[in-house]
Amino acid sequence: MEYSSIQLNHLSDEILIYIFKKLSNAEIVYSLSGVNKRINKIVHDSIFTNDLSLLMSTSDDLLYSLPDLILNRFCSHILPSIDQKIEWIHLESV
Hints:
By secondary structure, this protein is of the alpha+beta class. It has five helices and four strands.
């Protein structure tokens, strides 16, 4: 069997959405916003933006705030572009 290379852009939107739904919404939006127009349209869809948790959980179910670098990018670049689609946002109370 020959080595083949499949890139993210080779997958259909339906497959990408299925994969992305298995991950944290905040991670998807943060990591893939601005990659290209097609990916941007998918990750800015209300499927991923209507309920955002800006927290990370550990394997022992503890919750922590996202690192400042990530929160800063969310607040300055990402949230303004999706603010009309957000219904719930979960934050650390500190």
